[in-house]
Amino acid sequence: MTQVDVIVIGAGAAGLMCAAQAGYRGRNVTVLDMGKKPGRKILISGGGRCNFTNENASPDNYLCGNPHFVKSCLSRYTQHDFIELVDRHGLAYHHKTLGQLFCDNSAQDIVDILLTECEWAGVNIALRNEVLSVTKTDAGYEVITEQDSYQCESLVVASGGLTMPKLGASPVGYKIAEQFGLTVLPTMAALVPFTLHQHDKDRFDGLSGISIPCLVTSEDGTQFKENILFTHRGLSGPAILQISSFWRAGQTVYINLLPELDLKQQLEQWRQSQGQKSLKNTLATILPKRFVEMLHDTKAIPDCNVNQLSHAQIDALHDYIHNWQIKPNGTEGYRTAEVTLGGVDTDELSSKTFEAKKSPGLYFIGEVTDVTGWLGGYNFQYAWSCGFAAGQYC
Ligand code: FDA
């Protein structure tokens, strides 16, 4: 039996940040992970370049049963604090769109920074070490792994969500929470592509690879203005991934295909200037040609010249293009999702320390908690912020 002050389950973004912070406080910390490498999700994130934070991160960018829960940790360790950390380590990075920051070289640079911090803080990382069970003892917690058993005062659960089972996702964190009487809210794949019903699959066959800048709206009125992407499996692209977190089975997604333009006005203008041209060819100057051909072939738009359109047809076309409606069949699920919605109910945790109110010395941080960020570096920022917070107390 190995005796330590703090055990952290999970060498991911939240666990490594927390471990380094606790180590700097002089705590004897061991991180346990069943993988053969630390930070495996960081390594594949952002297409291998890790979108490690967002300059605009604020509590409004998170879904959580209690919208106030993230305020404390995000304000105590902000995106600017993390940027200051990576600057200190000399990380080369760049700004993409919408405040997103990416590594210039590789996501490995972020893992290296976290590992360096852990090393400086004297943290021990034990890999290939799956946690099998946890029990409460008089002195704290006993953790049994496939290799060893540990006794600790503080146990930090940073075991992540259910996405990407190939990368070691496991429900262990939810099981530990339930074992200690904490509520775990239902989980669901989020930031995930949509799959389509057969009739849409047939309609969209051949559109794979087409990307359109759109304004996408969910039934609850949440909106994202980014690209949608047709794939051979269904619909993806940043706007779709974003809205998937707000979509529920059976609901419709509303897509404004020309958010920067008033189609009615445009059609009136074309009637004057190029009325003899076919509607199909004219529309193909403002929307991808293959997409317009699909609308034409499926008779979603009239087969006529622009000046043959009646006022009623113009109104209908305007509504159709600005409010294109898709009812997804489902999502691609945990296999390709970036995050897991739901998880350990934040009402069970202190928003200051992340300690379980019912079980002193037990902490839950990162994706295992019921906090889900938007696409764009917000999920890592939450991992850094909550890891930092718990690291001050565990
Ligand atoms: P994380 O899942 O990172 O770590 C949990 C660790 O616990 C794992 O290493 C696992 O092996 C370990 N573990 C689980 N069960 C165990 C057990 N029983 N015993 C021992 N160890 C166990 N976010 C973002 O902000 N920007 C981005 O660019 C991306 N990109 C991205 C791409 C893809 C493909 C995915 C899947 C996800 C993203 N994300 C993202 C989301 C981001 O990766 C995610 O929010 C964080 O990795 C969550 O960090 P955690 O530390 O909470 O869990």
UniProtKB/TrEMBL annotation:
Where the record annotates domain RsdA/BaiN/AoA(So)-like Rossmann fold-like, the positions are 5-392
- Residue ranges annotated for the RsdA/BaiN/AoA(So)-like insert domain, each copy included: 189-339
The alphabetized UniProt keywords are: FAD, Flavoprotein
Superkingdom of source:
Bacteria
Query: Per the UniProt record, which residue ranges are transmembrane?
Result: none
List required co-factors.
FAD
A Pfam family per the record: HI0933_like_1st
Question: Which PANTHER family does the record associate with it?
Answer: OS12G0638800 PROTEIN (PTHR42887:SF2)
How is this protein named in the record?
A: Membrane protein
Species of provenance: Pseudoalteromonas gelatinilytica
